[in-house]
Amino acid sequence: MTSPSTDAHDPAALPIGMFDSGMGGLTVLHECLVTLPGESFAYVGDTARFPYGEKTRVELELYARQLTAFLETVPVKLVVVACYSATSAALPLLQERFSTPIVGVVMPGARAAVQTSRYRRIGVLATEATVVSGAYPRAVRSLDEGAEVHQQACPGLVSFIEDGDVASQALADAVRGFTAPLKAKRPDVVIMGCTHYPLIAPMLQRFLGRDVTLVNPATEIALEVEGILQRQGLARADDRVGSYRFYATGDVEAFRTVGARFLQMPLTRVRKLSLDTLGALVAP
Q1: CB–CB of 90/60 below 8 Å?
Q2: What is the DSSP code (8-state) at residue 56?
Q3: 146 burial class (0-12, 13-18, 19+ CB within 10 angstroms)?
Q4: Within 10 Å of residue 178's Cβ, how many Cβ atoms?
Q5: C-alpha angle with apex 51: 262 to 213, nearest 5 degrees?
Q6: How far is residue 18's CA from residue 179's CA, in Å, rounded to a whole number?
Q7: With the CA atoms of 98, 68, 81 and 279 taken in that order, what torsion angle do they form, in degrees rounded to the nearest 10?
Q8: Domain range for residue 97?
Q9: Rg (alpha carbons) of the chain, rounded to whole number
Q10: Whole-model pTM?
Q11: 71, 101 in Cβ contact below 8 A?
Q12: Whole-angstrom Cα distance, residue 248 to residue 203?
């Protein structure tokens, strides 16, 4: 990757920044790498404070501000909040306080669900924080006021997946318990409202039934990022393959090992990012 001092003279050459509470956002990064192979990326996994789904709104706003402030120091040309809980709690605040363009993960998925649904009955599987925020019902109804939105919180589901469990009986029992009340509402489209959930999409599909269309917002997010870069003249014009750097606030080796499974490629450049560094950027 070119040095930050060189990149500063060419904003299009700067990397795209992305952050999540842990590994789940790597599913978003995967889609971005497929859609935007020429772009470089800087990804932060806030694994020391994982999971975000059980945090308060005040905590999520603070963490999101700290991570965005850090990515601006990298520097980056655009920030993707690759976490549904953080997007739901803090996106408007981030867009107000930072000059870098910032994209969240809620609206792209809502848009895809509205466009896909035939009967205007949309389900959402998400973390507790995302459900409590009401971000998905607001986003869907801003696009289709008459749509029904049925949400189901899935506490603990992220921890199964983060620990590498995508096929155990305990996980299947948990998924069955979460999907049953949602299935009873008879949605024809269900949004996977957490970046971890695409890793268990086959299991979700099995319990929801073949008549339900699962929406993975990650694909839509990648397309939205591509559109923003093109409109703002920030897309890389050359045909070089981009480079990637990763930061973890928790155990670096664990991030490298587990992250490779999420991203489906080796994570060679993982750097430690201390919570003290983040606290110095934005204090509580």
Answers
A1: yes
A2: -
A3: exposed
A4: 19
A5: 55
A6: 29
A7: -130
A8: 4-104+219-281
A9: 18
A10: 0.88
A11: no
A12: 29
Out of 176, 201, 217, a domain closes at 217
CB-based burial label for 172 (10 Å; 0-12, 13-18, 19+): middle
**Residues making up the chain, counted from first to last:** 284
In the set 83, 90, 124, 270, the catalytic residue is: 83
> How do 16-20 and 78-81 pair as beta strands?
parallel
Placement of tokens 């560094």 in the chain:
277
What tens digit of pLDDT does each residue of 245-256 get?
999 999 999 999
Q: Domain holding 245: CATH number? A: 3.40.50.1860
95 and 225 share one domain: yes
Tokens of 119: 């009967």
Is residue 83 part of the annotated active site? The answer reads: yes
SS3 of residue 266 by DSSP: coil
Q: Counting runs of H as helices and runs of E as strands, what totals does the chain give?
A: 13, 10
- Which tens digits make up the pLDDT trace of 31-77? 999 999 999 999 999 999 999 988 999 999 999 999 999 999 999 99
CA distance linking residue 185 with residue 123, whole number of Å: 8
The question of whether 154 is a catalytic residue gets the answer no
Is 212 in the same domain as 223?
no
Q: Can you tell me which residue has the tokens 């932060």?
A: 44
Dist CA 175 CA 197 (whole Å)? 11
Six token digits for residue 268: 């060679």
Strand partners, 49: none
- Here the tokens at position 44 are 């932060």
> Quick check: helix, strand or coil at residue 80?
strand
Catalytic residue selected from 16, 102, 131, 194? 194
